[in-house]
Design goal:
Blueprint (H helix, E strand, L loop, with lengths): L2 H36 L4 H11 L5 H12 L7 H25 L3 E2 L2 E2 L1 H12 L5 H25 L8 H26 L5 H31 L4 H28 L2 H4 L5 H5 L4 H9 L2 H10 L7 H13 L2 H21 L9 H17 L5
Antiparallel strand pairs: 1-2
Length: 371
């Protein structure tokens, strides 16, 4: 792919993102006005959704745009804006609910939504339990974000039973299933053989994150442009291993990352008890003493820095970290190989070529964040 194509792709993606930001802002402004007619307090829900949504990198929306444009979609088609909004609102709903499930205090360097509602309760001098209020309000706010995602998708006018609608519905179901499996792994860990834990963790990773972060948005964009079932599969098959690599790297950052980059305290994933591939690999390789240390810290909610550092040392000394990052590299390489095999029509426009070039650059850079 030529440098000129890459420049076109970057320019078009930037313009799309700018349009999407304005579109989301208009959606939030309109809904906040509607909520305000009910009660000023109801408008707080929209305010927290808008605040959280404003911090995203728009990865899912950009993936959808690139595949849409690569398959010949018109960048001025309003439906791609609605699809981008759908994906960003769905992501916001998932983050709100995920932070409740993980008991996370922060997200993107700011208080998580349930903690923000808890603070609102305390500052307002309200009665009863502020923590319960915060959780309850955040559940409802996440549901509202999900409803707004459905509304945005409805404006695309995808008929029931259409490939586009089926893919969107499948994305929602798979994320919910993945989230459930994630919390099951936390409580079922003592009953799972260490040799089986890594495979189980990859199932969680695939359905909770990789598919809805990479595979589904990329396939949805292609379908919106009118891609055939074969073309849909090509884009989905490219995106899935890259999505898996992305999440493996993300899990590494959750333990070893710089809080200034991740927006979460160092070692937060350990304290939340996430049973990631990294953790599963370490538990399989660790001595009884090391397993005891990891078990004590996982899900503890709090630990001193010395214990966190010791747990990190176990992840490194057992070779688990190297193994997880090597798997990420292998999956990223598979995705890159599949990307290179995508062939555009001989009469493909410069915009199509640019979109494919931007898709390649964005997906490969997504997994190069820590190594």
């Amino acid at each position: 792919m030529t440098d000129s194509a890459a420049q076109v792709g970057h320019s078009n993606a930037t313009r799309f993102r700018e349009r999407l930001e304005r579109h989301l802002e208009s959606l939030f402004t309109a809904r906040q006005s509607e909520a305000g007619e009910i009660s000023p307090q109801a408008a707080d829900m929209i305010g927290f959704i808008a605040s959280l949504a404003s911090g995203g990198k728009r990865v899912r929306a950009l993936l959808a745009f690139d595949s849409f444009a690569a398959c010949g979609g018109d960048a001025d088609d309003h439906r791609i804006l609605e699809l981008g909004a759908t994906l960003e609102l769905f992501q916001t709903a998932a983050l709100i609910h995920d932070d409740i499930l993980d008991r996370s205090d922060t997200r993107r360097g700011q208080p998580s939504v349930h903690r923000a509602f808890e603070t609102l309760h305390r500052r307002s001098g309200w009665e009863l339990d502020p923590e319960h209020f915060g959780t309850s309000a955040a559940v409802l706010t996440g549901d509202l974000a999900l409803a707004m995602a459905d509304e945005a998708f409805a404006r695309i006018s995808a008929p029931a039973g259409s490939p586009l609608r089926r893919r969107f519905d499948r994305m929602k179901w798979e994320v919910m299933a993945g989230q459930y499996l994630d919390i099951v792994e936390e409580v079922a860990a003592p009953t799972v053989q260490p040799s089986a834990a890594a495979a189980r963790s990859m199932t969680v990773l695939r359905y909770k994150s990789a598919k809805y972060t990479f595979e589904h948005p990329t396939a949805l964009g292609a379908l919106l442009a009118g891609a055939s079932p074969e073309e849909e599969r090509v884009f989905a098959d490219v995106a899935l291993p890259i999505g898996e690599a992305f999440q493996l790297v993300d899990d590494d950052l959750g333990v070893f990352g710089d809080p200034a980059v991740t927006g979460k305290p160092a070692g937060d994933d350990l304290l939340e008890g996430k049973r990631t591939y990294l953790i599963a690999s370490a538990m399989e390789r660790a001595s009884a003493e090391e397993q005891s240390l990891l078990t004590r810290i996982l899900g503890a909610g709090a630990a001193d820095q010395e214990d966190i550092d010791r747990a990190r040392e176990v992840l490194v000394s057992t070779g688990a970290r190297d193994q997880a990052l090597a798997l990420a590299d292998s999956l990223a390489a598979l995705g890159a190989e599949r990307l290179e095999q995508i062939e555009l029509p001989s009469d493909a426009s410069q915009d199509q070529k640019g979109a494919l070039a931007h898709l390649k650059g964005m997906t490969l850079s997504a997994v190069a964040r820590s190594h």
